[in-house]
Specification:
Shape: globular
Structural class: mainly beta
Order of helices and strands: EEEEEE
Mean pLDDT: 84
Low-confidence stretches: none
Strand order of the largest sheet: 1-2-3-4-5-6
Number of strands: 6
Strand content: over 45%
Radius of gyration: 13 Å
Length: about 70
């Protein structure tokens, strides 16, 4: 099972190692491996709207932007 990570024109599939869903309204942490490096995706779903979603990979934190879903899929 994998998750796709990257810019839309350069997506890569990473292997999922672990998924945790928190009891704060659904925040989710996904630990993954991509190119033999471990990373972490964190999606904030706090009920009060506070918190950021980010990708931590190779010691860098990248804040995630709003995902646009194509309803035609």
């Amino acid at each position: 099972m994998g998750v796709y990570i990257g810019k839309p024109n350069a997506m890569q599939e990473a292997r999922i190692n672990e998924v945790e869903v928190y009891r704060n309204g659904g925040s989710t942490k996904i630990l993954y491996t991509l190119n033999n490096q471990e990373g972490k995706l964190y999606f904030s779903q706090r009920l009060d709207g506070i918190g950021k979603s980010y990708d931590e990979y190779k010691g860098r934190f990248v804040e995630l932007e709003l995902l646009v879903v194509d309803e035609n899929l």
